[in-house]
Amino acid sequence: MMQPSKRDLISVPALVLSLTLSGCVTLSDRQPKEDARLSELQDRHVYVGDSRPLNSSPEQLLKAYREVLQHHSDPQLQREAKKRVADLEVEGTMEAAGDDYSASIARYLEVLNAEPEHPDNEHVLYNLARAYSQQGEVEKQFKVTGDILTYYPESRYRAELLFRRGEYLFSQGKNREAVEHYGAILKRSELNPFYEKALYKKAWGELRRMRLQQAFDDFFRLVKRKLTPAMLKSGEPMERLPLSRGEREMVTDVLRGTTLAAALSSEDMLQRMFVDESLKPYAYLLYAVLVERYISQERYNDAAEAALSFVKATPRHPYAPELQLKVLESYRLGGFKRRLQQAREAFVERYRLQGDHWRFLSEEKQRFLKPHLKEINTALASNAHALAQRSAKLEHYDRAIYWYRRYLESFPADPESAQINFMLAETLFAIKRYDEAVPIYERSAYHYPRDENSARAGYAALIAYDKHEQTLAASEFRDRWHWLAVSSALNFVSNFRDDPRSPRVLANAAQELYAQHRYQRASDTVRLLLIRQPLPEHEVLLTAWTVLGYSEFELGRYAEAEKAYREVLQMSKHSDKLYKQRVEWLAAAIYKQAERAREQGYPESAANHFKRVGALAPGSKIEVTSDYDAAAALISAGNWAAAIEQLQRFRRVYPQSPLLTDVSDKLAVAHMKAGHIHEAAKEFEALSERKSEEKEKREMLWLAAELYEKLKDTASRLRTYRRYVNNFPSPLEPAMEMRWKLATLYGEQGNEAQRDRWYDFMIDANANSKGTSTPRTRFLAASAQLAMAQPVFTAFDKVKLVEPLEKNLRRKKSKMEQALALFGNVIDQQVAASTTNASYHIGELHRRFARALMESERPTDLNEEELEQYDMLLEEQAYPFEESALEVHEANVARIPEGHFDEWVKRSLEVLAQLRPARYAKQEQGEEVFDGLN
Amino acid sequence: MGLINLLMLGLLLLSLLASCASSEKNSRDENSAEKPVVSGDNTPAVTPTPVLQEITPAQQEALALLLEVMRAGEWQSARELAQELILAHPTLAAAYANMGNIHQQLGELEKAEQAWLKALELNPNWAAVYNQLGIFYRDQARFEGALAMYQKALAADAAYANSYRNIAILYEIYLGDKVKALHYYQRYLELLGGEQREVTLWIADLERRVKRSGQ
Q1: Which end of chain B is more exposed for a tag (fewer CB within 10 A), N or C?
Q2: Between A901, A929, A932, which is nearest B71 by CB?
Q3: Do A930 and B97 touch (CB under 8 A)?
Q4: Where are the alpha helices (DSSP H) in B35-125?
Q5: Nearest-by-CA chain B residue for A912
Q6: Kind and range of the H or E element at A45?
Q7: Which residue has the higher pLDDT, B36 or A755?
Q8: In this complex, do B176 and A922 lie within 8 Å of one another by their Cβ atoms?
Q9: Which residue is closest to B73 within chain A, CA to CA?
Q10: Residue A56: which pLDDT band, with cuts at 50, 70 and 90?
Q11: pTM for the complete prediction?
Q12: Chain A closest CA to B173's CA: distance in Å?
């Protein structure tokens, strides 16, 4: 028969010895299989001595062993068979979920009693203990295991049995004995499979015994076996440490035990965690467990304080953020709103991006923290904002602003930042910090990806610009601010073209550009509006055309301005308040085109434009001026007929115009140029009446007189000359000229009386000039005197000394004296040009008188001798006159060196050449021809 | 030779002169074509220097004809001849000098003055032309100008008697300086030499008046 090997194993259900102590957990399943014994829960093998593996089923084996018992008497075989039957029955009972192991117990006892000293009894006892255990007879089991330890002190089952007994004692509350049992195991090799279990149970046992320090140390001995400081360096949370689930649960349980020990201790055992270098690495795990324990016990304040104490003690610990989060969780769960708020603030402050704490965190930790930071920061800001809206207190708004800003500072590129940014702008706007709101709104509008708030923000920025500007005093800064607002408006429009507010914003921006003298920009901007489809609303469109008109006008593009203003007028009603003003704009735009054409030398074109003012902008203030300027331009163009027509029209249409005088001026000139001399003269004459300035009146009348003179219109000449002299006796000179003209005209008409009368007036006027005479007036007066004298000279010359000689002689002499007196008066005027004339005539009066004497008719009754004597007498009579004549002519000629060499001096010279040829008939000698071949 | 014949000859000569002038002109054109102006140099390539050219017999004849026509008082014809002469011989001072006389006779006083001035420009030492200008200026009552011209005439030719006479008349009648007048009359007389009764009487009269006036 085959001998079963001692090392044969049979599979039996594990014996479960339950540990009643709460908090204990099942031990690790990682024990080596060959060492697994009583403690295994499932699929454990009970050592039953040497046996061979059998391929038969347990039932077949049992049957076979029972047959052995019945049919074999060999005691050794019987013993083995009984053992096997008992083992198999235990197994079978367990598999059948039965609870009666008494048969097996009986068989084991029978085997033991049969050979109490059998060396294999250690194993039989071991299996008996197991059967007792299964049978629920734990005390018998405890006794049997004690027997094994007593009789087999070196039993291979020693550690297990010690542990098992410790467990029994532990369950019975016999803590000291239990601890002793666990301690006995710990004295053995640390490699024994029950070492950690024993340590674990010992720690708990010590805790039960209130040997708290011992418990604390034991717990940590176990923790240190599972986790090295290096594993904890980065502050990983428990669940991420390289532990199996069982180990993790055990470590967690151990730490919980530690916290219990600390809690029960009167000493501050936790403080050791930050002092004892060997404990420091484990502190965070301990505090994590502690905090969780508090939370599970709803001791939220304790939880928060525990977490805070850790953070306070080791603020840079990589796990500190998690614990600080626990603070928040604790306060939240506990409903400590104020503390929660403070804790949140502290959290965000501590871990703000780029802050000191943040920089010391690993990237992984930063990634972990970011969502928390965002959430908390958002909550802080939202709460503050909500509170501010409820309380309307500035300080609350300030807090909201602070937290919004903190968020944006930390997460500028986050998708949520757009919303946060907008909220910040709204908050600033709400408390009228418009200048600060502006850039924030603009960031929302133009910086972040487009969302439903973008356009709203863009528009709000414009409002904020405006609101802030209202608070600014006039200054360069305000101007700059204003310009920024306009730029922002343009930005709005280019970014949110389809926004319903865009057209209005664009129109306003264009208006502002205009106001800031940026006319080209204003024009370009407003044109964008005008090409929109559909066209903007009426009011906006009207503004647009108006701004375009203004801008183009300022840019000097008057035709474009006109076009815009015409649109404006077309859109306007006559009843509009601004209608008249708009007409003025249009008029100005057209007028400027005319001006430009005029400046550039296109007067005809200018005239057409000037005329258009009245046609297109009737009633404008410059209509009259334009009509007038049209005429002036036509004059410049030399289009006299058109100019005259325009001027006459002007006179008809504006009979009361103050420009009428100028119109007459121009009409006169136009008539002149057109060859309508008579009309021109009439205009000048009329102007003389119309002009207000006396000088102008004089000049006009003078011109009229000259024109009448040209026309040989005697009646008009006489009228205008007389009027001139009567109305403008001074200044003397032109009045003298006019008198001269009058006298001359009368002379031409043969009206000697009137002529001489006017010569007299001239002489008198000059004589009574009271210092206002001029060389010219004196010359004219002298000329008048000469003119008065000349006829007398002629009359003198005509008197022939013929019979009746005496009478004629008297007549001639009388005329001579008369003439001498008159020429003498001329010389008294001391006008050189007249003096030479008068001198010549005086000389001639003498010479001719002498000659007349010599040529006088001789009396017929004289004989030859008497006649000779008569001639001698005549010569004697004539001689003094001849001498005088010589003297006077020589005196006249003597004026030559003084610069007087006029017609009369030459004539005197000619006379002298006759009278004294030897002296005065000398002729210069030149060449008739030049024959030299030079 | 009758005047008509003279004119016929004159026209013939003028046509010859004209052809000479044109051929000369053509040759100049050819020269200029051969010697183009050097580009890059701002100075003219050729700067013609007026050269008193020798007068050809034909030109002498033309001048003689002109003088004859002038002496005949045919001033219009004279002007045409003078113009042709000037065209043919632009550096001939005599042509301008006579042209001055012609213009004066035709009442073209301004042109007359310009012609005489041109003649003097070509021949600055021509006392007779200065003298002519002096008379012209005196007639226009430009006495200072007249005096200057007479003096230039004498400077050019101290033996030019007419200018002594004219300057004396100028001083006596127009400038009122009998002493200076006397001086020049005396110089005039000296230059004329021989019996000059009229001038001697003038001097005697003037001496008397100077004496009387205590000048």
Answers
A1: N
A2: A929
A3: yes
A4: 57-71, 75-88, 93-105, 109-122
A5: B173
A6: strand A45-47
A7: A755
A8: no
A9: A928
A10: low
A11: 0.48
A12: 8
Distance from CA of B23 to the nearest CA of A (A): 24
* pLDDT, chain A, mean: 86
Cβ atoms within 10 Å of A741's Cβ, excluding its own: 20
pLDDT of A933 strictly over 80: no
* Residue located via tokens 């920025």: A461
CA-nearest of A348, A349, A340 to A300 is A340
B138, closest residue in chain A (CA to CA): A924
Q: Where on the phi/psi map is residue B141: left (φ > 0), alpha (ψ -120 to 50), or beta? A: left
pLDDT for A8: 33
For residue A457, pLDDT over 80 is answered with yes
Residues in chain A: 934
> Cβ separation of A924 and B162 shorter than 8 Å?
yes
Residues 6+ apart with CB under 8 A from A549: A561, A562, A564, A565, A568, A585, A589
The pLDDT tens digits for A71-123 are 777 777 778 788 788 887 777 766 665 677 888 888 888 888 888 888 788 88
Instruction: Report the C-alpha gap between A494 and A555 in whole angstroms.
Output: 24
CA angle (B93, B58, B30) in 5-degree steps:
80
Enter the tokens of residue A573.
């009603």
Closest CA to A400 of A367, A425, A417, A363: A425
- pLDDT for B94-144, tens place per residue? 999 999 999 999 999 999 999 999 999 999 999 999 999 999 999 988 999
Would the CA dihedral through A250, A255, A260, A266 be positive or negative? positive
Which strand (E) or helix (H) includes residue A10? strand A9-11
Q: Find, among A571, A577, A575, the residue nearest to A548 by Cα.
A: A571
Check residue A692 and report its DSSP letter: S
In total, the C-beta contacts within 8 angstroms joining chain A to chain B are 85
Q: Which of A918, A927, A933 sits opposite B132 (nearest CB)?
A: A927
Nearest CA in chain A to B119: A934
Inter-axis angle of helices A623-637 and A579-599, to 10 degrees? 10
* The pLDDT value given to residue B104: 95
Distance CA(A710)–CA(A672), nearest Å, equals 12
With cut-offs at 50, 70 and 90, classify the pLDDT of residue A189: confident
Q: Does the pLDDT at position A640 exceed 70?
A: yes
Contact A627, A610 (CB under 8 A): yes
pLDDT higher for B214 or A800?
Answer: A800
**Residue from B111, B90, B124, B107 nearest B17 by CA:** B90
Identify which of A918, A926, A927 has the shortest CB distance to residue B202. Answer: A918
Q: What is the pLDDT of residues B31-42, one digit of tens each?
A: 333 333 333 333
Tokens of A282: 């484990």
Is this complex's ipTM strictly greater than 0.85?
no
Distance of CA B110 to the CA centre of its chain: 14
Q: Decide if pLDDT at A177 tops 50.
A: yes
Q: What is the DSSP string of A543-570?
A: HHHHHHHHHHHHTT-HHHHHHHHHHHHH
